[in-house]
Amino acid sequence: MVLSFNKLAFKYKILEESKIHTIRKDSEKQWHEGMDIHFWLGVPGKKESNPTPHQFATGKAKMVLEVYIHSKRNIVLIGGSSYGLQKAALEKFAINDGFRSWEEMKAYFPEEGYYRIIYFKEVKDILNNQLTIF
What we know:
The protein is an alpha+beta fold. 19% of the residues lie in helices and 33% in strands. Strands 2-7-5-6 form a 4-stranded antiparallel sheet, with no helix packed on it. Strands 1-3-4 form a 3-stranded mixed sheet, with helices on one face. A two-stranded antiparallel sheet has the order 8-9. Helix 2 (87-96) crosses helix 3 (102-108). The protein is globular and about 40 Å long.
């Protein structure tokens, strides 16, 4: 399935593997673990865009989890957890998504809502059944 990005910086962060996930509205729950990912800069079919849309990588969805974000209250709940991320973890969460900071990320998610987080990198410690992203 196609994942398109509008920030050139995200392309390079995906290629250098510092952006390890993305957050999307996925109300129909189309994304699932193991799905092929076709990473695109821009929207396929919009050839008049600058830069010209193009596929720049492929990958696999390693894990897909529900995420609740309320940026005005600095609340992020991953995978149905009732434990909110603390300030340092919010910063790491934003950096893992390709932003420079939580403050920058909040501008992309100004409204409270439920999303899905699609991981491109293995982040689960199988032995301890824990996420290893923080």
